[in-house]
Amino acid sequence: ETGVTQSPTHxxxxxxxxxxxxxxxxSGHNTVSWYQQxxxxxxxxxxxxxxxxENGRGNFxxxxxxxxxxxxxxxxxxxxxxxxxxxxxxxxxxxGTGAGNIQYFGAGTRLSVL
Amino acid sequence: xxxxxxxxxxxxxxxxxxxxxxxxxxxSASNYFPWYKQELGKGPQLIIDIRSNVGEKKDQRIAxxxxxxxxxxxxxxxxxxxxxSAVYFCAASPNSGYALNFGKGTSLLVTP
Lengths: 114, 112
What we know:
- Chain A has strands at 5-7, 10-13, 19-24, 31-37, 44-50, 53-57, 64-68, 74-78, 87-94, 104-105, 109-113.
- By secondary structure, chain A is mainly β.
- Chain B has no helices and eleven strands.
- Chain B is an all-beta fold.
């Protein structure tokens, strides 16, 4: 076990709704990265939070947003859900953003958009 | 941006045989190349990684090789066991703490 926990494990939403996914980082880790993994694909980087600030973003629209709290836990929010948002959402935590910091993944939240 | 290609997409070997998975990348700024194993219902787990100042790294039955000139790296698993069955992902990044660019994965099946 990596010590990275995500909730909920599964979620079903309808198109147009909004969703919030949560991630608790491993103890002592100040960096959280979020990834989207479509079925049969590799994870795709959404964005990273370092000490409560966004520290880089992948090719995802603004309706994907995030937060990081003082305890370094994090939320991923998706507005105006689309069918293509159905995927496994993974968060990964690390001790920092620089070289030498390994990213440890949680088990993910499976989101289904109907 | 970085583009990582991974082959093969599926691989079936008999227990005890070796398995090799290959990846290529496009961005010469990439310096960190991890391999993750993902079992059903779990998140990816790091099994080995290599940085650009090293050409090969080994950890028991697992080894990774890197050719920076050709921009490709490979995972080698020897003496495969049924518990090695999983999906394996390669990734590339300028550094380990930042955005990882993943390949599409290889589904490895080890049959007894």
